[in-house]
Amino acid sequence: MTVLAIVTVAVWLLAFLIPSGQYDRNDKGAPVQGTYHRVSSGQSFVDRLNDLFLAPVNGLYGIRDTTSGEVGPSLTGDLYGSAGVFLFVLAIGAFITVVFATGALDRGIERLAHRLRERGTLLIAGVMLVFSVLGTVEGFAEETLGFYGLLVPMMLALGYDRMVAVGTAILGAGVGVLCSTVNPFATGVASSAADISLGDGIALRFVMWLVLTAVTIAYVVRYARRVQKVPARSLSGFLPGDRERTATDAGEAPQLTGTHKAVLIVLGLVFAFMIFSVVPWSSALTGKADATPYSFELGWSFPQLAALFLCAAVLVGLVARLGEQKTSSTIIQGAGDFISPALVIMLARGVTVIMNNSRITDTVLHSIEGVVKGTSSGLFAIIVFVVNLPLAFLIPSTSGHATLAMPILAPLADFAGVSRAVVVTAWQAASGWMNLWVPTTAVTIGGVALAKVGYDRYLRFVWPLLVILFVLICGFVALGAAVT
């Protein structure tokens, strides 16, 4: 939030120096290549000062005037602010918090780990796969911090080292987020900012998730087997007592009650229904972007999804018999816990409002157009991926990064003849790749601290995988751009 506050002021100051300009728009509101021309912003200093003052407000519920294109809280036109995504983030936060309050998800993962405790390879693969699935559908990442108390002793008991536990948690969930299919905090926010459906590009992202998850699991399993065979090859080393642990230290298998099972079924059905409701099935199955929607397609977006997760939170409370008071308080607590990413989205959107009202967005777009002009579609997609790497380092929040970058990146896809969904995929891959190792994320630093592994040793462990994933990502986004 501090970074975005600084960015807001910096962009406001730069707007005095960057010349105003705009593109002609087509029927869909997309800029037409080659039509950029200089215009006057028509703003006085007081107007610009007012935009800076109201930036967060406009970022939440600013209305874009249909005639002038100006954004303000009391104008008439279309919603430009992020109110829809803002409420959606709070709603899914409430739902996830209620699910965790039942203990069902924690207990389910613990039971899976315990049942596979004597089959090390299956344990690593099974837990990483579950974490990756949760990462790709709901951004499961920080939640892994609660499982180190289970994973570290389990891995040591099987003859592995602490690095295996770190790799299982950070890389398992991280590769899922990197290849987000319908993750609301990455794909959802980016798709909204790019003005496309959450389901656009899901086929490419799903295949990418399958391949990169398999590669990541194989990488961790290979390291684990090497350490089990020759403990001296451990990159993390062993603390006193680590080598004396046995499989009996794992304790008794946690039991899943009928309530836990029911909650897990509801959880699975809710996310399955979310995927069904947002996917443009006619386009996905025919390969034609303008295919006529099938009768069963819902075409849901953020308003409907926000309502879905609010209702699902209440449903989980009823199924788990939490009672009216605890269900209500947990929903409020969940919305409160997720207010941070929601506010980040609002602040980032406020930056784009300043750019819009001072009419410099198209000028910035025009300058980048000159850089990518003439490049092939595949090279364009790779450039989008690479350009977003330093931005992901500066703004580790996927929601804030997406809201800030997409208004510029998405129209570039139109100029390059590439689907905007490919830009979303390239962007989220950059954000996810950086968050596997950068020290600005709680998932990485918190994970190595809980496992008592040095951060420098973790970097030694992960860098070959980062290179492999980098190459694969470039291949996938280039392929996606060529296909579309």
Automatic annotation (TrEMBL):
Q: How does it sit in the membrane?
A: Multi-pass membrane protein
Subcellular location per UniProt equals:
Cell membrane
Q: Record's InterPro entries?
A: C4_dicarb_anaerob_car-like (IPR018385), DASS-Related_Transporters (IPR051679)
Q: Name one Pfam family in it.
A: DcuC
Record keywords: Cell membrane, Membrane, Transmembrane, Transmembrane helix
Q: Which domain of life is it from?
A: Bacteria
Q: Which residues cross the membrane?
A: 79-101, 122-141, 147-163, 170-190, 202-221, 262-282, 302-323, 375-396, 408-430, 436-455, 462-483
Q: Tell me, in one coarse class, where this protein mainly resides.
A: membrane
Q: What is this protein called?
A: YfcC family protein
Q: Which organism is it from?
A: Streptomyces melanogenes
